[in-house]
Design a protein that fits this description.
globular; about 30% helix; 6 helices; 8-stranded antiparallel β-barrel; alpha+beta
């Protein structure tokens, strides 16, 4: 199963598709899985498909050897004339995000490894933050190293911070947080906790993030399919 590490070895691409009905989500998942199952692109390492839970949509967490390999895929006739038009018919938005994994944190029982697989039962939250380029590193720090206190939160398993490099379908700079939880209930309880009842450490981080971000979007997912090169 794919592993997430802040080791600088891969380009990480997160493709986020939103749609407006559960039926269209099913079509998205089928189309994405078909592409993943036939993938044989030079430099492609792995793809992991996620089904939206909080809102209809999908996410594809993809590892590539380099930006050059990804751009070769984007410039291909199949991508331009088949893949994008197909997704355009059944989505309300398409965000193709290129990222660098800059931070990972896990509960001790995970042994310092973040794995993503349909064989796991994680509730996965993907949060996208807009940010001014001059504030991006500060936001990365606020969302990463400043959140060691998360290890004490019931239901928390891991989180990964991805620094946005460039994107299609999204203007400006961004930061992504990819987190894993025991279940939807644990994540909902965490996000719904009244501000006045939150620990002081969390309140400080929340205030810092709010001051740095320009906008925020999020959804929860379940991993439904994965495949790596050579399988």
């Amino acid at each position: 199963m794919p592993k997430i590490a802040a080791d600088g070895r891969h380009l990480t691409v997160l493709n986020l598709f939103s749609t407006d009905t559960d039926e269209k989500q099913v079509k998205l998942l089928a189309a994405m899985s078909e592409i993943v199952n036939s993938a044989a692109y030079d430099g492609w390492i792995s793809s992991t498909v996620h089904a939206g839970q909080g809102k209809p949509g999908t996410a594809n967490f993809i590892q590539w050897r380099s930006t050059e390999d990804l751009e070769a895929r984007y410039s291909g006739e199949e991508f331009k004339h088949r893949t994008l038009p197909l997704f355009g018919e059944i989505t309300t938005s398409i965000r193709l995000l290129q990222n660098e994994v800059v931070f990972t944190q896990q509960k001790p029982e995970l042994g310092g490894v973040t794995e993503i697989s349909p064989d796991r039962d994680d509730c996965t939250a993907i949060e996208l933050f807009g940010v001014e380029e001059s504030d991006q590193d500060d936001l990365v720090d606020a969302l990463g190293r400043s959140q060691e206190w998360l290890l004490q939160v019931p239901g928390y398993r891991s989180h990964t911070v991805l620094k946005g490099l460039r994107a299609r379908g999204l203007e400006g700079m961004f930061v992504v947080v990819y987190s894993q939880w025991d279940d939807q209930e644990a994540y909902d309880a965490f996000t719904a906790q009244p501000q006045s009842e939150r620990p002081v450490e969390r309140q400080k981080v929340d205030a810092r993030v709010t001051a740095l971000q320009t906008w925020q979007d999020s959804n929860t997912y379940r991993v439904v399919h994965t495949r790596a090169a050579g399988e």
